[in-house]
Design a protein that fits this description.
The structure is a single chain. It contains 21 helices and no strands. It has helices at about 10-30, 35-40, 45-75, 75-95, 100-115, 115-130, 135-160, 165-170, 170-185, 195-200, 200-220, 230-255, 265-295, 300-310, 315-320, 325-330, 330-350, 365-385, 395-430, 440-450, 460-495. α13 runs antiparallel to α21. The longest helix has about 40 residues, at about 395-430.
Length: about 525
């Protein structure tokens, strides 16, 4: 793709890519705070409602690595215009839906068309800006990746509390209109290469879609389905493995594979890929777990929980302009290493949660996590573009962003497992340590006495007191389970530090090798 190398049209294109990426990452989490409300109005159970989020993530992760192929097939300008129109139509469908089936169909459309906007934003930066301007473009793209997921809950919570959940989808209409204008003005016209349809790596396209799609569903729904006790999970696992085999066959036989997986074998990009997995797990995991803790244990509403979560994005907002200066003067491996260190420390600061922890107790740790997230994730974008030659930028962008989203699914699956298993374990340990003379057990003795003097039926009073005691155990166990989640993410970040040694420093003349 040609451009004016940092001129007005190039920056208009970068603005389009930034806006599209922000819209897509925002919508990946915007429904999280509003799910209970949406489920109630469309008549979906709690388990069914999880598909409102899962459908988006599955479709998004399928499209992200395929975006490079569709770019070559249609031309980037035409491809993104089609995706923007598809995204806004899907958004309106979600906003108007009155049933779970229509909602899921719309969310699939949102995820599929929105998924194209994430890797193409980095592609625009890598191919249309001059080496001297590229750092600024990467900073803008990194800002959307960091802020989008953490801003989703607060935007969704605000619109739901003040207006209606329908507006979390309708807000995409004016944003998409602005995006279309930027795309038409900023991106050059390119001829479609429809001949690529006949030459397409169909084995790779099908294999990639099936493997990633099935794997994402397994990670999102596995714990609820009791993993391999479920025939559905077993079938999806077989399907994912089959898809992977088909994808590998396509890599070995196609003249031009749909995406060049061989670049993962290169040392520098391997480091980028694995770090994207681990940082993605923490990025999406923490954005999910903070609102859950505040909702369940601190009685915060969706908007209040979103406000606390958004603290993570403050360092990115404040330091975005400093990115080009830091990249130019400091070895990127040191910066990313410091990011992982801060990320890990911030998570470990939350490894002592109690039932009395509230939003104010998260402020300092969220700022530390936010600083680590900025240094690790935003500069990792730069490491991704410098790890491969320019002609492989599309494949690198697709794999890098797919790894981050796949890491997010792994993180959410880890949270689900830890919360369920560790809550039960901690609650059981609390109950084992309570004797008849313990302070916690006193209500269980007082209640029957109250029944004896006629206040309530003794049997009912005893049942109520034991129920209250069980609730106390579960609440304390739940708080410790949340603490365990942060401990695991903290250790993951610190354990990822050696991977920084695999990365390639950004060339002095820019963030793209010549």
């Amino acid at each position: 793709m040609s451009g004016d190398s940092g001129g007005r049209n190039a920056w208009t294109a970068v603005a389009a890519g930034t806006l599209g990426s922000l819209m897509a990452t925002l919508d990946s989490s915007i429904v999280s705070a509003s799910l209970p409300t949406i489920q109630g109005e469309i008549g979906a159970s709690a388990n069914e409602g999880t598909w409102i989020s899962t459908a988006y993530l599955v479709a998004e992760i399928v499209m992200i690595p395929l975006a490079g192929y569709f770019d070559r097939l249609l031309g980037l300008r035409r491809f993104l215009i089609v995706c923007t129109i598809g995204f806004v139509v899907s958004s309106v469908l979600c906003g108007l839906s009155g049933s779970l089936g229509i909602m899921i169909f719309g969310r699939i459309g949102q995820g599929f068309f929105g998924g194209a906007m994430i890797p193409t934003a980095l592609t625009i930066v890598s191919t249309m800006l001059s080496p001297g301007q590229r750092a600024k473009g990467i900073a803008l793209f990194g800002f959307t990746v960091v802020v989008g997921p953490v801003a989703g809950p607060i935007v969704g919570g605000y619109l739901t509390e003040i207006y209606s959940w329908h507006y979390i989808f309708f807000i995409n209409v004016p944003i998409s209109a602005a995006l279309l204008v930027l795309l038409v003005v900023g991106l050059p016209k390119e001829e479609a290469q429809l001949g690529l349809i006949a030459e397409a790596d169909w084995l790779g396209i099908v294999g990639l879609s099936v493997s990633l799609g099935a794997l994402t569903v397994i990670l999102e729904e596995g714990q609820r389905e009791r993993w391999f006790e479920s025939p559905l999970v077993v079938r999806l696992t077989a399907l994912s493995i089959t898809g992977l085999v088909v994808l590998i066959v396509g890599q070995l036989t196609a003249r031009r594979p749909v995406i060049n997986l061989r670049i993962i074998l290169q040392r520098a990009f391997f480091g980028v890929f694995v770090l994207s997995l681990s940082v993605g797990a923490a990025l999406y995991g923490i954005s999910y777990v903070i609102p859950q803790f505040l909702d369940q244990l601190a009685d915060y509403n969706a908007f209040q929980a979103g406000e606390v979560t958004f603290i993570i994005g403050i360092p990115s907002l404040l330091l975005m302009a400093a990115f080009p200066i830091i990249e130019k003067r400091v070895d990127i491996r040191i910066v990313i290493g410091m990011g992982l260190l801060f990320y890990g420390i911030g998570c470990l600061m939350n490894a002592r949660l109690t039932p009395s922890t509230s939003g104010v107790n998260f402020v300092v740790s969220m700022l530390v996590i936010g600083l680590g997230q900025y240094l690790a994730l935003v500069f990792l974008n730069s490491a991704a573009t410098s790890a491969v030659p320019k002609e492989l930028a599309e494949d690198a962008s697709g794999l890098f962003n797919a790894a981050r989203n796949l890491g997010g699914s792994l993180g959410l699956a880890t949270i689900t497992i830890l919360r369920e298993n560790r809550t039960w374990l901690h609650a059981a340990r609390f109950s084992e340590g309570v004797t008849q003379n313990s302070a916690l057990a006193q209500p269980a003795g007082v209640a029957p006495a109250a029944g004896q003097i006629g206040m309530v039926d003794p049997g009912t009073a005893l049942t109520q007191s034991y129920t209250a005691l069980d609730t106390t155990f579960r609440t304390a166990g739940s708080a410790l389970a949340f603490a365990d989640v942060f401990f695991v993410f903290g250790i993951l970040m610190l354990a990822s530090l050696p991977l920084v040694l695999l990365l390639k420093p950004v060339p002095k003349e820019g963030s793209q090798p010549g």
